[in-house]
Amino acid sequence: MRRDINWFGLAGGAAIICLIFVSFFVPWWQLVVGDGLVTANVSPLYTDFNFVGYWFTVPLLWALNLGSILSMAAGGVAMLMYSIYPGKSYSKNLLGFGYKKPLISVLIFVIILVVLTQTIQALFSLSVPLVGSATSVLPETMTYGTIVRVLITANFQWPFYLATVAAALCIAGKFYHKKLFAPSPPATAPASSPATVKEVAPPAQE
Amino acid sequence: MRVLGVFFVLLNVITLVGPVLGVVLAYQDNLKGMVIPPQVENMMSGSLFTGGKFKLPQFVSAAPDLAGRTVTLVFEFTNPFNYDLMVKSISADIECSLHGFTLGHASLIEPTNIPAGATVELTIRCEWTEEAENHFNTEHPGATNIDANVVGLTINVNDITIESDEKYPISVPKAGSSMLPQFVSATPDVSGRTVTIVLSYTNPFDYDLMIDSISADIQCSLHGFTLGHASLVQPTNIAAGATAEVVIRCDWTQAAVDHFHAEHAGATRLAAKVVNVTIKVNGITVQSDQVYPIDVPIS
Question: How far apart are CA B281 and CA B188, in angstroms?
């Protein structure tokens, strides 16, 4: 007997788990001031900073990152479990819980980055690019009359794109689930042999 | 299924709120520490710096090159951080402090790494423009040094560019002035046809100089008449920092002898000047438009 597997969901779940691991080592977005004098490695799962050779993390961000890790891990496991047993009665709950996690992470992450860069621009007149390089002049109130130009480079790293792929796979899994368990069209019984008409099985739970 | 739904909602809440609550409890005595960790506070209070504050490079010295066409400026720069810095470029303009005239543009010779806490000398070099040399000759004739300012200092440290509006007063040797000898004496020979001129030459460099040749014309100061051509008697080596006498010899031309008799009859001494001085030192030829007044005995 063939067992249905939601391959999109399975790939999405695996991508989430993979994403959690790689995010410890490679950030989703990296901001570099100068040629490494100041570095910010930012992701929803792990964030740290380097200021003139000193690495540190902010406890509040660490807590939020830990929450994201737990949430993403739960979502990934839920997606994997659902994908292997998509026809079970609890599968819809697993899918509903898991598929949104990477999407929400990506969306909130991008929104926070945009808001943060715009806020810095508004408060300090410091142009922080979301992607690419920009030379910004530090406010003279900070530099005591000296003009200080800083080269700021920011780029999304490959785990961000992996997160986007994971989100896309999970959404595809959601749609594939609908297709997988779409109600079959009622079979039209041949007029000549009404006795061969079978009862159509009820559709699996979506 | 409802139970599972509630479980997932609770899981969402716990995973997000739990860690934040934990950190809040851990930092309840120091809530600021949740945002500004102790490492950052330690950094700002001193561990970031090895001592002292960040200061722009300080001027140390200016030295001309052999031909006096470029000047090498030495600045001292201290890295106050516990982190190696790379000075990638320095650029500045040098202007005459008296006239505000831009004499040339200086730039760092090569990128320099400055280890954490170390002080290093940064060497930047400026080549005088043609306009600068004209300025030296027209506005500062006879001067051997010119007061100048290093302005518009721009320093690139680890791709952070600092532009200073500070002026660094420096004293720069005038182009070619360091290469020019000073007149000491002039002595005629017994025939009265040749004059031996002794020049004093100071080697301003920290390496030996070999004067290969000197040539010059000698003119009557009163009439501008060319009396003869002088040249170095023999190549002379001058040790680093030493002062030596250099001898050049001039044979009076017949026209010069006639000039003495016609224009300076009865005179025993003649006010003359050494002009068109060309000196070849260590293979580099320096031409000077400086005029050396000399007193020449005639017979």
Answer: 27
| Chain A CB contacts of B33 below 8 Å | 59
Residues B130 and B184 in one domain: no
C-alpha distance from B56 to closest chain A C-alpha (Å): 10
pTM (predicted TM-score): 0.66
Shared-domain flag, residues B157 and B221: no
Domain-terminating residue out of B130, B157, B176:
B176
- Of the two residues B105 and B202, the one the predictor is more confident about is B105
DSSP designation for B47: I
Name the nearest CA neighbour of B281 among B230, B213, B233. Answer: B213
Task: CATH number of the domain at A140, please.
Answer: 1.20.140
Assign B256 to helix, strand or coil.
Answer: helix
> Does the beta carbon of B28 lie under 8 angstroms from any beta carbon of chain A?
no
Q: pLDDT (tens digit, 9 = 90+) per residue, B266-290?
A: 888 788 888 888 888 877 777 776 7
Q: pLDDT digits over B198-238, tens only? A: 888 877 676 788 888 888 888 888 888 888 899 998 898 88
Say which residues have a Cβ less than 8 Å from residue B260's Cβ, sequence separation at least 6. Answer: B252, B267, B270, B298
Residue type, B132: A
Can you tell me the distance from the alpha carbon of B36 to that of B21, in angstroms, rounded to the nearest whole number? 17
Where do runs of H (alpha helix) occur along B165-272? Answer: 254-263
pLDDT of residue A64: 93
Distance (Å) from the alpha carbon of B6 to chain A's nearest alpha carbon = 10
At A205, the pLDDT band (50, 70, 90 cuts) reads very low
Alpha carbon distance B79, A55 (integer Å): 19
Measured distance CA(B157)–CA(B135) in Å, rounded: 34
User: What ipTM, to 2 d.p.?
Assistant: 0.77
> How many residues would you count in chain B?
299
Whether residue A186 is contained in a domain is answered as: no
Whether the pLDDT of residue A172 is over 90: the answer is: yes
DSSP assignment of A72-135: HHHHHHHHHHHHHSTTSTTHHHHHHHHTHHHHHHHHHHHHHHHHHHHHHHHHH-----SSEEEE
**AA identity, residue B64:** P
Interface contact B163-A149, CB threshold 8 A: yes
